[in-house]
Amino acid sequence: MLLSDRISSIVPINIWYSLSLTLIMAVAQDPVANLPQGRIVGIKVYTENSLTPVEIYYGVPYATPPKGRYRFSAPERHTGWRRTFFAHRLPPHCPHVGDSDNDNYSEDCLYLNIWTPRRSDGKTLPVVVILFSESWIRGGVSLPCQELAAEGVVVVTVMYRLHLLAFFTLRSISARGNLALLDQYLALLWVRDNIAAFGGDPTAITLLGHSAGADSVLYHMTSPRTIGLFQRALIMSPRDIWKAIDESKIVKFSEVERLSREIASSLGCNNNTDNEILHCMRERPLSDLMSLYSNETLSAGMQPISDNFLPESEQFLPLTLTKYLSLNKQSTRQLDLLLGCNDIEALNYNDAKYKEFLEKGTQYVSDYANNEIIPESLQLFSYEQSESLAMLAEAVRWEYWREKTKNEKEILSRIEILGRVESSAKWTAGIALIAARLARRVSRLYVYRYSQPGGVDLEGRQYNFTGAVHGSDLVSLLGDALMLQAARRPATKDEKRMSSILRQYVVNFIKNGSPDDETVWQSYKTGDANICDIRDAESATNNYHSAKRDVRFWLQYLPHLYEISNVEEKKSKLTDKQGDRLRGGVLAMCGVTVMLLLLLLVCAILLHRQKSRRFTVTDDNHH
Q1: Are residues 311 and 354 located together in one domain of the fold?
Q2: What pLDDT digit, counting tens, does each position of 260-290 carry?
Q3: Is residue 429 in a domain?
Q4: Predicted structure pTM score
Q5: Going by C-beta distance under 8 Å and a sequence separation of 6 or more, which residues neighbour residue 284?
Q6: Could you say which of 319, 338, 357 is where a domain stops?
Q7: How far is Cα 21 from Cα 44, in angstroms, rounded to an integer?
Q8: I need a labelling partner for 430 at 20 to 30 A (CA). Which of 12, 386, 596, 606 fits?
Q9: At what angle do helices 558-622 and 386-396 cross, to 10 degrees?
């Protein structure tokens, strides 16, 4: 007997009919999108604060799987599928540092996840494309974006290659490097061509990046290939912001090529020609490649490079970020930009160091600040003269450290202040320097700094600090869905309030190109460097350092102090030289005087002898 016959014999016919109808309606209610590649079926979810369902399509392929002969090659468009594609599950992530055998990773990882609150009237919605990875060698959590989508925007997250699979280069077309950026580029092309099928407007795309994803947005803003693919950009907590400021911090393509050849050699690919090396590397098992991911020296070079060694038609990054931003003549992109960071970004970047602080106590934290963080922060601004460094370091201590730690014995408070010193220099001042370079290159620019007491990071860790650590802004933006995933708990009332504030700014920017009314949040202009502090006024502390104060300290007060110290030093040297000359002149005059006196004395003696002799001769003649 069939299962349906068994059920029919037990369940009355009217109930069986109702049950069957319910099942049919449930299947029929699954959202569908028809693409040139094929038919795709997603799922529906409801969020806490919205009666409109959000359609989700997980794991939509946008490129041919980069495996086998496609490994280390630029991505190619996906050819499509014959049967209905059920986009119901998260796809495997791209291999990165930290993956184990049990992790869900694969080289076949070039997928998109899409959330859309499709309108019943058929009108299109603005689109935000999110790029996220913790670094160029490490990925991160999967981002649940239904709450952001429920605000009336279509959200797309992009998966892209990392580490060796993304940046291996032999300085040739066949192994060109920069594959993470090229993956993102192909994803943007896919969104432009297909997002209308999900209710999105292909002419209203915002490119949002966080951490290494934020660095990616900067690269796409400088690439001639991406012009017109997005109309707005949102850069949140960039990881390597100083690579856009200081050319010396950029890894050269020759160094990445050297590391790539060293990697190939270590895997036994010592062939004579580049094509033979590439063929050998493509034949190696993925596990062999990933066995090198723990080598920090090799990992350090796995990042974007200028590819001006390629033919001009193939170049994606003809210039480095610093060279692009330093050009005097550069056409302005029709682009709105929102740029910002958190107030204590630095604290959870190095978990091992954080644990070391807790174990060794307050004095160790103070010594580390004096010997490591303060000198390193000053070197960012090229303060290299030893005569000035001591005075500038003392100024940093007075501004951030001395008064606030005078009677403070709690280790967490000292760690937080240490984080504020590094964060204010590297991120807050760095963001201001980048903003000054971008102000004339975009249509509108808005700059912010985010603060949230006790913010949760992307690993779900909550620090007892008065500001926002790295990742707190993204958790706040995506709301309860990410909070539940990361911290295994719902957001508190205060966390929901901050989430609402930040999300409204971001949604306003995605929809209108500005986070708020100009009277509330003024745009950033050259000569009028406005930075908006996004923080909870209800929990604000009296000794809070505003972003404007931090920027003034690092970019105005310290340079002024440095110049004064140099002027005083030059005056001192000049005075010393003049004093030496004066003393030398006096000694010379004294020497000349002594010599003249000696000459006079000698002359007097000679005259006296001559006179005596004359008198003697006369007397002899008289005789």
Answers
A1: no
A2: 999 999 999 988 899 999 999 999 999 999 9
A3: yes
A4: 0.86
A5: 267, 269
A6: 338
A7: 19
A8: 386
A9: 140
